[in-house]
Amino acid sequence: MVLKNKDASTEEKIKEAARTVFTQKGYSATRTRDIAEEAGINLALLNYYFRSKEKLFELVMAEKVSELFGVIAPIVNSKKTSLDEKVTLIVDAYITMLSQNPGLPLFVLSEIRNNPEHFGNRIQAGKLLTESFFVKQLIEKRPDIHPLHFIVNILSMSIFPFITKPVLESAGVMNSDQLNEFTEERKILIVKWFKVMIEA
Amino acid sequence: MVLKNKDASTEEKIKEAARTVFTQKGYSATRTRDIAEEAGINLALLNYYFRSKEKLFELVMAEKVSELFGVIAPIVNSKKTSLDEKVTLIVDAYITMLSQNPGLPLFVLSEIRNNPEHFGNRIQAGKLLTESFFVKQLIEKRPDIHPLHFIVNILSMSIFPFITKPVLESAGVMNSDQLNEFTEERKILIVKWFKVMIEA
DNA sequence: AAAAGATTTAATCATTTGATTAAAAACAAA
DNA sequence: TTTGTTTTTAATCAAATGATTAAATCTTTT
């Protein structure tokens, strides 16, 4: 019997094109023909390899959700690092990752908005925000303030510049290189700011 | 000659429905039939009053951009308020406004991402972030740190919870009421945090 | 009331779009 | 080479969708 020997290169070309186009334009604005063109393949091949636009999207989306939330999972659950160390690691991990993939947060957030039912409890991020060891450390340090406030502060200050990238560029505030410089600076600043906030 | 006497009520019903549907699903995922149904009108009326889906969208979008950026314009340009006062006003204005319109930022940001060319320099927000009196006050206070860092901090901490609302709800971290409570708390906290950050 | 104009409706168009099909081409096994 | 299998292509389909049209209804003016 002959093994399935799909040309992995073609399949991967389609998936890569799908990543690009879906992330750039979102599910609804993406035409399967856009993906085919981006991949340099015949339209029918998309269905041959992935059955449907939706199936292909789910594949890409699952990847992107992992990328976005996977960053912090190992950090916030560690029992070996201090509070301050965790903040340093989180900020650094997010800014480094998003510099390579700036469209990621806006993509994931807007697709979840468009179809909240579809994601249901598939997102385990909830537990990271409410049950991780990081949360315990925050409560220990500041029992008077809900830990989510600090988590939102750290994430927002790290991620927000990337979410607003399209506006910053359209409005001529920054170009792509300047944004990277700016967020690189923030790696150190945010940690410093966190330290004074947690004591304030 | 008889004046054009369009039934303003119908026109407004369509515009209102368009606001709802466009904001919820974005331009591409919105069908003109969705808007017609939401407005309770015949599909053809949409074109009768607004020519095309795109024209209607531009109308709504212009409104939404104003809502989103109009909030801060009068505050940051005032010469009568102190730095701290401005921060208090900005945070309060945004959180109050977004509590009534939580989907606004994600909508505007993702539409600009989908079609950056289209917005070009139509967004005057750039000047608010680079040339306002608020910026001068920030530089005066902390000439060593780019003022945009502080502006991003204030805006991100205020707006980010609303951007992530769909995730927070899907993941079961918070429901809508809890989010309002949470952001209401932040009105005071963010100002406090800003004060220690600007001194740090 | 009659005429003129504005608004609304049902039906229909043309295009786009996701998907399928049948045949061709490429490849592997014998 | 021959045979069978996988991959690719061009052509086509059916449904969805933005838009238009022509007729019907309602409103205003005279």
TrEMBL record, chains A, B:
Q: Which UniProt keywords apply?
A: DNA-binding, Transcription, Transcription regulation
Please name the Gene3D superfamilies in this protein's record.
Tetracycline Repressor, domain 2
Q: Which GO terms describe its molecular function?
A: DNA-binding transcription factor activity; transcription cis-regulatory region binding
Q: Which Pfam families is this protein grouped with?
A: TetR_N
Report the DNA-binding ranges: 31-50
Q: Does the keyword Transcription apply?
A: yes
Residue stretches making up the HTH tetR-type domain: 8-68
The record ties this protein, via PANTHER family, to: HTH-TYPE TRANSCRIPTIONAL REGULATOR BETI, HTH-TYPE TRANSCRIPTIONAL REGULATOR RUTR
Q: What is this protein called?
A: TetR family transcriptional regulator
